[in-house]
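Consider what follows.

. . .
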Amino acid sequence: MSAVSRVFGGCRTLMAKAATNAAAAASGGAGKEGKGILKTVPVSQTLASFAGESELSRATAVKKVWEHIKGNNLQNPENRKQIICDAKLKTIFGDKDTVGFTEIAKLLSPHFPKSV
């Protein structure tokens, strides 16, 4: 058996296992709650007002922030890593005028309850 066939043979095996896991999750996991950043939890009133939902996952919250940033063209054209906050973003980012895109998750963190 050549090295190429071993790689592709292993890839098929991995893909089959992934398909099996996806099918199992779709059938049996439909009622299960997400885990980690995909877990839907109640959020602060400020973030709920921004997103229009009282319960969000962290991933969904970041997605909604990015939709707002892209929809309102709030990225600094000279430095695309910098976000220029409008009044709506300032409410969830603590009145900051600008934030780096790597800060977004950290600034959203206080809006999620601490798990006990």
The CA atoms of residues 44 and 111 lie 5 Å apart.
